[in-house]
Amino acid sequence: xxxxVIAFQGAVSEHMQMIDSLLGKGSxxxxxxxxxxxxxxxxxxxxxxxxxxGKLMRSSGVFRKLKxxxxxxxxxxxxxxxxxxxxxxGDAQVERTGELLGLMDMRVKRNAFGRQRxxxxxxxxxxxxxxxxxxxxxxxxxxxxxxxCRALAHFGRYIVAAEQGNLLATAFHPExxxxxxxxxxxxxxxxxxxxxxx
Length: 198
Known about the structure:
It is a single chain. This protein is of the alpha/beta class. It has a single domain (about 5-195), classed as Rossmann fold (3-Layer(aba) Sandwich). Helix content is about 30%, strand content about 30%. It contains seven helices and twelve strands. It has helices at about 10-25, 35, 50-60, 60-70, 80-85, 90-95, 180-195, and strands spanning about 5, 30, 40-45, 75-80, 85-90, 105-110, 120-125, 130-135, 140-145, 150-155, 160-165, 165-170. β11 and β12 (about 165-170) form a beta hairpin. The longest helix has 16 residues, at about 180-195. The protein is globular. The model has no long low-confidence stretch (mean pLDDT about 90).
């Protein structure tokens, strides 16, 4: 099994190291093209600046291919900026990101908790995982879910983790917490997807 990490920006190496620690060296793969998406069983869209990530995904062909895959049973996990990219809609700041993948039935708010200096860490209860140490860095949040999307964790009035079938989104950064449980949870989605598509 290979898990791709969209490698234009963000904590790419940290995600890859976490995947490698769970599945074996070389299981986390950097993805920068549509062709490289063909060689992985799942994808993580890491944090960073959503406008830049979106622009690079579109110009490389990754955006179109990932949207096609996401509409099937292909597992995709977005952290922070990746959460924004997965959403169907967002606030005025999100609109400046450009076209979103539009795969998850949720409305997101960019910089929901403030700018970089308002970054923080918090202990939160996450459905299906338990109590987690969550690292928020200039984080977005989900204002509203609908359709098949379901909330996994809340902070204040916002949803900060959500799931929809093969799709997972977190406003925080599990790859920076040292806790591999979120990556294990995502890998369980990949295992299920592989089984269903045999």
